[in-house]
Fold each of these.
Amino acid sequence: MPLFPLLLATIVGSTGCASLMPADDQPPAATQAEVAYLRSEIHRLQARLDASDAELGRVLNDVNSGRSSQAAYVTADQLQAIKAQLDSLQSQLRAVDAARAQDKKDIYDDITKKVAALMAQRAASAPSQTASRSGRQTGIEHVVQPGESLSKIAAAYKVSMKVIMQENNLTNAEVIRVGQKLFIPD
């Protein structure tokens, strides 16, 4: 029940009147002062009630906003679970990187074998270009192709790089050029 009607009922009930006074009769002066005092108290209490309602509304808003912002906070258990997931992902990433490195090595090795096989096949299918060096040795003359290295050529002909370097007066295995003719001894 609202406060104002309750106070009004209290005022009316506290006067001790058994009957209502006629409208044209004025209450005694003491009663008028009491009524005025009670009215001012009612107004003061109504103002306090309004202020309390406003404060209650503000507090409820704060509580509700606190509940919604509480979702943004992470508990220690949640943080630990996230850390465990990150550790797991990092471990998986390292495994993938290791697998990629191994795949890269396997592909490189496979390509090297295929190139060596192609070179050997080409050398075998090419007309026999038997050459001789000052009557000492016989072998094949090889023309360096793009992408070939001395190690690949040596592997294709199953001859050591050192022998090829000696026979061709090479001082550095890295310094061969496309179109260069190399003597490959038997």
Amino acid sequence: MAFCAGCGSQVADGTAFCQKCGKPVAGAAAPSGNPHNPGAPVTAGMDENIASLLCYVLGWLTGLIFFFIDKRPTVRFHAAQSIVVFGGLSIIYWIVITAFATQIFFGGLGVGWTLGYTLFMLLRLLFFVLWILLMIKAYQGERFRLPIAADLADSLVGKVKA
């Protein structure tokens, strides 16, 4: 029988973790952080550029997820920027749809080209272009900063070195 170094309780042979405190038992092969950088936190083996890209995949939803689960500064910046950009665009999108619902409906049926339908399509195009651009830049490891959104993202995360 072995003893836990953390709490001192008795641990059965062949057990990797203590039943009381959950700490790894001495001599057992337990993961101890990032194998490429031993001092870094465990991130499930996901590279920073992949995590940054994933912040944008489902817009503000994945931005929220990564904002709360990943503590790396670059990933948190991309997550916050995703929340600000795509959350803001989603709000504007729904305001346009609500304000111009009839025009969008009739413009979409080919009855005529209306102001509401034009705004609707321009927002969809802007959403798509920003989505692709931000995913590519994040994957390349760049901290691409959109003019207003990046400042708001910095205020969410706190100032981060570029």
Amino acid sequence: MNARGLCLFLVLFVASCLIAAPQDESVRSDARSPVISHIPRDRVPSNAIASIGYSKRRHILEIEFANGAVYRYLEVAPSVYRDLMNADSKARYYVANIKGNYPSVRVRPRVKDRND
């Protein structure tokens, strides 16, 4: 095999490896199949957060926001859920302790106003 053939082989091999590589789970993508939620959520008194649910077994926190969006946060300790539920301001606690600190998946996008 000459040098040109070897280079072509290597390029094709690397390209096929990249295509076959599993997708990084920390990257959010709307192209993937939608997440279906089976975590029951309780309504909470908040202007920004409508309801909150938690799976103790899977350590998943699910938050429905007032705008209709639902996000799932992974690897959340039970103490974080407990502190969130006991917080005077759920929105402030969320911003300070959850948002950006845990891997997240969008379960449902926000509901756009009819005027959007």
